[in-house]
Design goal:
The protein is mainly α. Helix content is 34%, strand content 3%. Strands 2-1-3 form a 3-stranded antiparallel β-sheet.
């Protein structure tokens, strides 16, 4: 029984193998079988001399385009006028061959006036940018009255920098490397930068796309401009920093803490302690030198005020009438406002004026 069962299984496997082999051979025969002159059909065409749409099929008028048949119609390329050698196609199906048809696509616009004479959905392009004025078409112009070559998001709209992105959606419309809002922010009352003009670009010394007027670090040396200005180094020279401005060598360092290999750094960081010649110089200059330089100025102001006080006092004491005193009082008030004399000096002078006026009153009484 086992031998018989084994023989049956072997026979079944042999039959299955033969079937698979036969199926494979049939598949290969179909794949490599010769194809007739007609494209995409299994029917053969009537033999002829056609060369344009099909080769070797019937061509009654001898114009190279095959006659239509059951498997090959005019929509596939067959001759719409098989007995007229001067015509082979009728795009708008109006019965007039395209060669003789003044309006091949049948859109109502003559061929010579039609920008797309073989597309009935579009026919004009007012701004001559290659996109149609008519809507609802793959070539419809989103900006029909503005010349443009944009292809992304909008077709036929202004694209100054030629990146195919319309200006209204382009962060850098003129392609000068600086964003539109940056150019506007860099403008002032006297200098205006145009984000739509590649020749109107704000200066950007370090080429980091941030205009110099907005850039906190114009030379990209890691030191903020306000620190460099305060210390005296060049904000446009990355090799000139507060650490390198003296003696042509590095004269500073930042202490980060601890005593390890990473306890010191040359990179600017406000969280670290700076130890440098420029830092010490700044302290000395601002805390000592400037106050010393101001001493002569303070002294000159003091002498000027004192001299003015003495002059007013002399004028009051030598005044011969009340009208003169009133004029002097007005001058004193103005001098106080302009800080030419101190306030308390002004009070002393006014008291003196009142005293002199009282003397004038007493003299008038005695004379009466």
């Amino acid at each position: 029984m086992d031998v018989k069962k084994t023989n049956m299984q072997a026979h079944q496997r042999a039959v299955m193998g033969a079937r698979f082999l036969l199926a494979g051979m049939l598949t290969l025969m179909l794949l490599f079988a010769p194809v007739s002159a007609q494209d995409s059909t299994t029917n053969t065409c009537e033999s002829g001399t056609s060369t344009e749409d099909r080769e070797g099929c019937l061509d009654s008028d001898g114009d190279g385009w095959s006659d239509p048949d059951e498997a090959w119609n005019t929509s596939m390329g067959a001759d719409a006028f098989p007995n007229n050698a001067s015509e082979h196609r009728d795009l708008d199906d109006d019965g007039i061959g395209d060669n003789a048809d003044d309006d091949r696509d049948g859109d109502g616009v003559a061929n010579e006036m039609d920008v797309w004479p073989e597309d009935s959905g579009i026919w004009s392009d007012a701004d001559n940018d290659g996109y149609a004025d008519q809507g609802m078409h793959a070539l419809s112009d989103n900006c029909p009255n503005v010349y443009g070559k944009s292809k992304i998001r909008l077709l036929g709209c202004s694209d100054i920098d030629g990146d195919f992105l319309p200006d209204e959606y382009d962060d850098d419309a003129d392609g000068d490397g600086i964003r539109n809002e940056m150019e506007r922010s860099a403008s002032s009352g006297t200098i205006l930068y145009d984000p739509y003009n590649p020749n109107s670009t704000p200066p950007d010394a370090d080429q980091d796309t941030i205009p110099d007027v907005l850039d906190p670090d114009n030379d990209n040396d890691g030191w903020p401009d306000y620190v460099e200005i305060d210390r005296g180094s060049d904000i446009f020279d990355e090799d000139d920093t507060p650490f390198t401005m003296y003696f042509g060598a590095n004269t500073g360092i930042f202490y980060t803490g601890g005593l390890g290999p990473n306890s010191f750094s040359f990179d600017y960081n406000t969280d670290y302690t700076e130890i440098s010649v420029s830092f010490v110089s700044e302290i000395v200059f601002e805390e000592l030198v400037i106050p010393l330089l101001l001493v002569p100025i303070y002294f000159a102001v003091f002498l000027s005020r004192r001299q003015a006080f003495r002059r007013f006092m002399l004028d009051i004491e030598t005044a011969q009438s009340k009208s003169v005193l009133r004029e002097l009082e007005s001058e004193i008030n103005e001098a106080v406002k302009q800080k030419k004399i101190k306030v308390y000096h002004g009070l002393v002078l006014r008291n003196t004026i009142e005293s002199v006026e009282d003397n004038f009153d007493d003299q008038d009484c005695e004379e009466e």
